[in-house]
Model the fold of this input.
Amino acid sequence: VLGRARADAGPLVLAVVVVALTVVLTLVTPRLADRTADAAVRAAVAAAQPDVVVTVPFVETDGPRVLPTGTADEVADVAARLEAALPEELGAVLDPPLATVATRRLRLTLPTGELGNSALTLSWVWRGGPPEATWVDGRAPEVVDTGAVPAPEEGTEEGTGGDTDAQAGPVEVALSEASADLLAAGPGDALVVHDAGRALDVVVSGVFRPADPADPVWAHAPGLLEPRVRGSGLTTETLVAALLSDSSLPVARLTVEPSATTRTYTFPVAPDAFDGATAQPVAAAVAGIQAAPPALGLPGVEARVETRLGDVLLDADAQVRVAQAQAAVLLAGVVSVAALVLVLTARLVVRRRAAVLAHRRARGGTLAGVAAELLAESLVVAVLGGGAGVAVAASLVPGPTSWAGLAPVAVVTLVAVPLLGVLASATATGGRRAPANLHQRRLLGRARRLR
Done:
């Protein structure tokens, strides 16, 4: 066996090289395809930023309205319940929620008409706590005690406020430096605000500067840091947001109409947490909570889930699948060509050994013995080529090894030479076994003639 291998070293080395290259391509292509799929899904999510927004209305009780002093704690508690109730697929790709409580746009009257139609929004933002800010002038908003009746504690009877609603005091708010400059307002100044024709008592308590203007919590309250001015001339529209504190938030809720306050929870997406394999499960989880918001742990509450995350993931997954199908077709072509090359190499080896195989068979060699020797040789070629290919693929693109994908190359490498060799050995003697001893061959010939 070793002598024949040395005599046919050229074709055997060629077979080892072909096996190694085929194994490298077979392993590297799926790994690169998976990496490309991961990058494509992450890029799509990062470009779209399809945050998951859950709107949870406040539950208003019948009877006279009271001061909801525990509003900030209630909002934080609902945020924790929502985060805990998220499906596992969503919890792995979403960051902790940002909570926002904001009123609808309230009509803001300014001393001059240069800013056109102006609106004020009272906003409270939270991300595990109030955002960090530096007070340039004044102080944080507080509660002005005017005898407003607080909300009853859980387990006590309602109606402590009598038959009429509690009267809220002035709503203290804070303005950013840009908003204060635009409105020419400072601590102690009152803002002329109306809601549905009713005047609201809104007072500026201080002017703040954000510790980190890039903190995402500020971006979820439009106009909070920078007033929004759109249009020009008579069509100018100005939107300003004023900051509420944990103390002034209950007063703001009591001041405006019950339906005028919106509570939203925004779950930012984490693009780096996505990959090609999670696209479909996450899209299915998004569809599930959109179809059944009570599954988020808020039974009896008419919550609403809004996001484009499912559509973005399904579009990205469709593009990834098309690319993977094309890569699979190309890889199948490469493997087919490699298999044909291995078959041609096997034919070359067998043709060179035709005389040796015929002589071996003529001297009484069995077909099983010929097949065993050629299979041992092919096994060495497959192990050397496959091992080199696996090592090179691991150094180029680390990743899991798909042994099922290597099966076609391994089968062709192991079977081609033994099968062709057995056929050549069998046909060299007409498919009959001939004894090596001359006397025995004569006796066998006589027996055949007698039969």
